[in-house]
Methyltransferase domain-containing protein (Micromonospora antibiotica), 263 residues
Amino acid sequence: MTGEPRLGDVFGELLRDAYAVHTGIGPRPLVGGRLPRPVIEIIERDDGLVNGAPAAHYLDGPEHWQPYDHRAVDRTRGATLDVGVGGGRIALVLQERGVPVTGLDTSPGALRVSRHRGVRDLVLGTVDEHVADGRRYDTFLLLGNNLGLIEGRERAPAFLAALAALARPGAQVIAHGTDPYGTTDPVHTGYHEWNRQRGRLGGQLRLRLRYRELGTEWFDYLVCSAEELAELVRGTPWRLTDVDDRDAPYYLATLRLAGPGGR
Ligand SMILES: C[S@@+](CC[C@H](N)C(=O)[O-])C[C@H]1O[C@@H](n2cnc3c(N)ncnc32)[C@H](O)[C@@H]1O
């Protein structure tokens, strides 16, 4: 016993329990063996900030979605890769609409929940690993704030190159991001400043997820402004063609593959 969490599939365990609460399938988490225990994702930041977020929304049907999720789905066309499919809430709706969708995730437990809920085409791994499978797509979805997966200045070129390697001519990326800089909370503005001092983007979060006795490794997750995203996309095979910020500070960024067919 070290007091440190055991490394494990935090997201998968969390989703399994949220799914059990949602459906009554499988053992539900209980307090004292009797009362329902809420399923909360614990998010630790490297300045010591700890936040909790209820996991139930990862299973939400479209009636509970935010407006930008609907607009993202409406813009989806062709063979689609849902990057970080989670509990499959987006993929299920695309399937119903007849859109050929593949769900990609690094969490075996998330894929189990997605499969159980009816998502038919699921792949375990990262975008980099998926390139070798030879499958190609017209739309890439990074929803549920998953623009964060581009991590920061170091990872962004390789991440966007992997998406380009998976892309058909004319492909698009639809990514949900959040502009972090509207806040006046000194806990956050101080963190942004500390990040800049150590050569990182202000909203380049260094996080660890916890659930019960499990934790993830520390990882970078980028929360950036549209201007910072434009800077990160410059020099890659993609062009930032649209930023829909009707629900600011949340936005949907559309990237298009540059070059023949991508104009
Ligand atoms: C914030 S959740 C979003 C889930 C889903 N897109 C939604 O909107 O409900 C992030 C998901 O991305 C997955 N994930 C994390 N890192 C990943 C990576 N490098 N490649 C693919 N999926 C990843 C997690 O396991 C989790 O299912």
In short: The chain has eight helices and 15 strands.
